[in-house]
Amino acid sequence: MGAENRAAAGRGPDIARPDVTSVHITHWYAPDRAAALALLDDVSAQWAAAAWPKGLLSFHAYLSTDGDTVLTYVQATRPTAHHDLVRTLHGPAAAAAVSYRLHTSIVLDHSGTPPGAVVVATFDVDGAERQERIVESVAKAVTEAPPAQREGMIGAHFHTATDGSRVLNYAEWTGDEAHLAFLDGAARAATLRATGATPGVRPIGFRRFHLHHGITPDRSET
Fold this sequence. Notes:
Blueprint lengths: L2 H9 L10 E8 L3 H17 L6 E9 L4 E8 L3 H7 L11 E10 L9 E9 L2 H17 L8 E9 L4 E8 L2 H8 L2 H11 L4 E15 L7
Antiparallel strand pairs: 1-3, 1-4, 2-3, 2-8, 4-6, 5-7, 5-8, 6-7
């Protein structure tokens, strides 16, 4: 793997890359950190060893900071590419993913700073119209917050499930400390109010993650 590709894998996915038409996200829960790490390593190893079908662009795997959740984020140019690979895997790695499309990206830091943490917040919603409303409401709360109230947020990327049942915010932060400060601030309160004011939207919760594995098209792993 070349140095440029290794650096890209270590930074996490390029959310804005124009050839992505679908994103596939899977969660697994584990009883403790050791079990989560073993699961993360197994799933990532199977992806690294598999023959990737045409259309898959990247695979990234994360461990939550509380050590009980593994998440994978897969980008593709066609919706069926993820299924084509997963059906060749076994065990937890063969689990079905929720399929999303990137809806809206808000980039607050254009310096190229790599994220030190990723926060994934998920909402259960009643159809496409509610997806639109909650993305608009939360995005507005983020963009209208004074910069000091969201310091350390690199960007927020809103994804909508293709079946209309979910909205997911993949937010990039400079590190854990910045996100913890945000949780105690006014901007966080504004996003909660925006969520609560939207009928047909039920917050599922959020987790903060650190990147552990990234695989790019030339099949190498970090």
